[in-house]
Design goal:
With 155 residues, this protein is mostly helical. The chain is 64% helix and 10% strand.
Amino acid sequence: MTRARTDDLVTALLTASRALVGVSAASLAAVEDTMTLTQFRTLVLLSQYGDTTIVRMAERLGVNPSSAQRQVDKLVRIGMVTRSENPADRRELLVALAPAGRTVVDTVTARRRQALARTVRKMDPTSAAQLTEALLAFAAASGEPVVDDAARLGW
C-alpha cells in the first residue's frame, strides 16, 4: 500500500473511531458514576474469556499486574466481579464476572448495538458489506479475536 493510501485509510479510521467512541461513551452513560472505561473493559474481557488470573488480565488489558489488581479490587468492592482460589493452583486467585457485572456488560452492549444499528441502516448494502469485510480484516490484523457471538463483545 502506498504512503498516500495508508494516510487516507488512517484518516478514515480516526474519523470512524471518533464516531465509535461517541457511541461507546453514550452507551456507558448509565454506569459512568460507578465505573471507569478501563473497569468496563475488564468486565468485557471477563465476559469474553471467562475466569482468569490477575496476571492474565493484566496482559489482556495491556497494563502491569498491580494496575490490573487495583481495577479488580474496585470491581470486587462494587460487586461486579468475584475472586476465588484457583483449584488448579491454590497460590493463585481467579477473577470471575459476577451476575451484576454480566448485567452491566449485557445492558451496555445492547445500547451500543442499537446505536450502531441505527447508523448501519443508513448505509447502502454494498458499502455495508465492504465495511464488514474490511473491519474483520482490520480486527484480524490487530490481533482482536473475532467471535460468532458478537453480542458478547461489549467493548
